[in-house]
Amino acid sequence: MVKYTWDHIHLRTANPEATAQWYERMLGAEVIRSMQQGKPRIDLKLGGANIFIAPVAPGDGVNPPPITPYQGLDHFGLTVTGIDAVVAELKAKGVEFTREPTTVRPGVRVAFLRAPEGVSIELLDRNAA
């Protein structure tokens, strides 16, 4: 049987630099700058995952971001410890939350935040007291 492993998440944005700075400032992502086919490229490392940021220009034929919830890929999740403190820290930085920390089952708390381009990110604390 084939073994599948994660390679990357691909984000499209009209402002790659601002998007990269948001992920770096808010979530501690590592920003990796390079050149690809003579054009600047910005990638991120976050929680061991690769996030590739693709620029969107007017006339590219790229649709606007959907409003959550929607069918298809809805969000991605990041594991944290001490979710209430993490949420408080992110709120102090100006992050918008679409769902406050909630216990979904014993020992598991979740919260949802909105990233640039309408991306929804779930924070999970699987060892919540």
Query: What is the count of structural domains?
Result: 2
The average pLDDT is 93
Beta-strand portion reads 35-45%
Task: Name the CATH architecture of the largest domain.
Answer: Roll
Following the backbone from N to C, one meets helices and strands in this order, namely EHEEEEHEEE
Task: Kindly report the CATH topology of the largest domain.
Answer: 2,3-Dihydroxybiphenyl 1,2-Dioxygenase, domain 1
Biggest sheet overview: 4 strands, mixed
Helix content: 10-25%
Instruction: Work out the radius of gyration.
Output: 16 Å
Description:
This protein is α/β, with parallel strands linked by helices and 129 residues long. The protein has helices spanning 16-27, 83-92; strands spanning 8-13, 30-36, 39-46, 49-55, 76-79, 96-105, 108-114, 120-125. The protein folds into 2 domains: 6-58, 2,3-Dihydroxybiphenyl 1,2-Dioxygenase, domain 1; 68-129, 2,3-Dihydroxybiphenyl 1,2-Dioxygenase, domain 1 (Roll), CATH 3.10.180. The protein is built from 2 helices and 8 strands. It has a 4-stranded mixed sheet with strand order 1-4-3-2. A hairpin with a 2-residue loop joins strand 2 and strand 3. It is globular.
Primary descriptors:
2 helices; 2,3-Dihydroxybiphenyl 1,2-Dioxygenase, domain 1; 129 residues; globular; 2 domains; single chain; 4-stranded mixed β-sheet; alpha/beta
